[in-house]
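tool=predict chain=A
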Amino acid sequence: MKLGYQTNTWGGVVGHPAGVTSVKDAYYLANGSTEEALEDIAAAGYQGFELFDGNLMQYKGKEEEFKRLVEKNSLDFIGVYTGGNFIFPDILEDELVKIEEVAALASTLGAEHLVVGGGAVRAKGILESDYKDLGEALDKVSHIAEKYGLIASYHPHLGTCVQSPEQLEKLMPLTMINLCPDTAHIEAGGGDPVEVMRKYIDRIKYVHLKDYQNGEFLPLGDGDQVFDAMLKVLDEAQYDGWITVELDSYQDPKVGAEISRKYLSKYESLTSN
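tool=predict ok
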């Protein structure tokens, strides 16, 4: 297993304001310095990084600058996180156009993974048909990823129509996409991360770790998550992919990355690949 870190802690999670009026511009964005983030991630001892689609697209037309930044810090570009509503036919085409542009740039810059969140919640509540529509849209995302040599994985998330284990169970038979479990979001949504990972282990190609306690996302070791059991599930399945620590915000991003990396040192035998 290889260890990575998400750059969203530097600047926190925001979005591109143009996305309010044009779906094709609806990017996730961390409002911090990608350069500073990569320097801190490398210094903390991680091997790679993931970033938001909006931060990636800031390097469109500046690909060589991005490559130099990655090389300077001796990191691997693991992948990019993107998303969409996915249940509204009228805007799906534009959502997929955006995702294809993101996938194309990510592939050009050497990424391996395309991580996707989303599945809108309607003002009137969730319809059962939303899961079918979401599954079909995620299949289209998977085909886009395959076109560019990327591995697509769906990331369940609070605030979407797939945040509880029951909702995930509705979706997974309706799509071919892989699963990226985010351990804290699963617990916050009422699930047991160990059980979810065990149930879907054959479809797990990528993992997000973060700790969780009393409604708060935390660095690893600062909450109540049972990482021993989670990593045991991965180890028993001979999982040899990336594990990315992802923390939406922390008062000192560098310190947060260091806390989680120090915690993971206890699993050195599993994460030394």
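The CA atoms of residues 58 and 98 lie 14 Å apart. Residues 89-108 form the longest helix (20 residues).
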